[in-house]
Design goal:
mainly alpha
């Protein structure tokens, strides 16, 4: 059952990455932070690739990886902005919406159809978002949804999860045509190049990459360790099982929010995140025909 530990460790590293990323927001803008995620993760991937080796590349790999890099570049910039402007204990759990998008996008793009269980999972995810701001219900039944909608970071993360939903389908295509470690290494190289170009054009300055490097390096290293742990877990079990347990990162995000950022309403956010996690598990395990 090593894969169970690795999947949870992957979620822990990912939530830790978000925590360092939120703290680094005072030192660099969103473009520099998004670049740091992939650029400083690249050495981790290159070491793993040296151990794993280069596979035979199948058809469709390069188109899928280029398109995935394009979608991910916007997703990570927007995700960095969401963490900057809203509490991590709210923003982090919104990633549970990604499987819900896959239920909608799967039939359209790769012919995967949802089941009744999958639809039930979507309803649980929606219910979980309601409980994230359950304390607002006294002002009206729909007020928890309205309170979430007023959070700019939540609105941004909804777009991020949609982009992740599309990139996840492209990831699946690319992984079938290569190997996990090779794929994330090439993706990291492409994203580093794209995000560096975006930072040069849109950022006020990329000097923090040098002057504030100690605040930015941990973001990439933790992200790299998260993906490596995830890929090893993939090699030991069915991919959907490891993916489902990695979603424990939303619970770690809430704990970090309480301990490090002194965020409020943690009980309702834990309840909401737990319901969203249950919905995500249902979608992942039962959501395909």
């Amino acid at each position: 059952m090593l894969w169970v530990l690795l999947a949870v460790v992957s979620g822990f590293f990912n939530a830790s990455k978000d925590t360092f990323q939120k703290r680094a927001a005072i030192h660099a803008d969103d473009y520099v932070i998004a670049l740091s995620v992939w650029l400083f993760a690249l050495p981790v991937f290159l070491i793993a690739l040296a151990i794993d080796g280069i596979p035979i590349i199948g058809n469709g790999f390069w188109l899928a990886v280029v398109l995935s890099a394009a979608f991910n570049s916007f997703a990570y910039v927007l995700g960095a902005r969401a963490l900057r402007v809203s509490p991590i204990s709210i923003v982090g759990p919104m990633l549970a919406l990604t499987p819900a998008w896959l239920l909608l996008l799967g039939p359209l793009l790769i012919g995967e159809n949802p089941t009744v269980w999958g639809a039930g999972g979507v309803l649980l995810v929606m219910a979980g978002t309601y409980f994230m701001r359950f304390g607002e219900r006294k002002k009206g039944f729909l007020e928890p949804f309205k309170a979430l909608a007023r959070e700019p970071g939540v609105r941004m993360m909804i777009v991020v999860t949609f982009l992740f939903g599309i990139s996840s389908i492209l990831d699946k295509i690319a992984l079938k045509a290569s190997s996990p470690v090779f794929y994330i290494t090439i993706l990291s190289i492409l994203l580093s190049a794209i995000l560096f170009t975006m930072a040069r054009i849109k950022s006020k300055s990329i000097k923090p990459m040098i002057t504030k490097v100690k605040h930015l390096v941990p973001i990439g290293v933790l992200f790299g360790l998260s993906l490596i742990a995830q890929m090893i877990a993939f090699s030991l079990t069915i991919v959907v099982y490891a993916t489902s347990l990695k979603r424990s990162d939303m619970l770690f995000s809430i704990i970090y929010g309480k301990l490090l950022f002194k965020e409020k309403e943690i009980k309702s956010r834990l309840l909401g995140a737990s319901i969203m996690l249950a919905g995500a598990l249902l979608i992942i395990f039962k959501g395909r025909a």
